């Protein structure tokens, strides 16, 4: 183990947290004494095209950035916040995960955002990524923001439950319990890092803890009007 740290530190200039994420990936089969498969992939044609689009856009300074996966991407944040004085940027990519978000933070931070609303997690759960790895990636993302854009406000938002009765794909089954556990860890991470945590789950869950059918048509994604409740909740907390 010591030799591995020496090799990494000699040939790659990374922080201690980066090394720990790498170790979690390399040795994930022994996380918590259980066998676990780690899928750290994130890049595909859609990710690359959307990232190329972001990179080609002019740099926007002091913006409010919504960062995440398809649940973030599908919102018309600019219209929902048309009365806001600051620019609004949608940095959601459908299918993205904590590895993918971590990999594209340079573009996200180039304009020194005023605020970043971070919301991820469900795709990590779909691929059964060990939550220790997800939390390590989240911590890395937060640390990148603090280091490269220290004036940026960071808001960590919870992952949303899904409605498994409305989904057919095997990878969506038995995931809500994992989402609940992840959100508990995200809340603790936010407290450790001294940043706000917004629990979005109560806005959209039914009495059984599933994503309410009135807010979704596929059991995973939100219908457009659901984002109005999301924005209202952020405004009530004085984040917007």
Automatic annotation (TrEMBL):
Residues 66-227 form the SGNH hydrolase-type esterase domain. It holds the Pfam family Lipase_GDSL_2. Signal peptide: none annotated. PANTHER family: SGNH HYDROLASE-TYPE ESTERASE DOMAIN-CONTAINING PROTEIN, THIOESTERASE 1/PROTEASE 1/LYSOPHOSPHOLIPASE L1. This is GDSL-type esterase/lipase family protein.
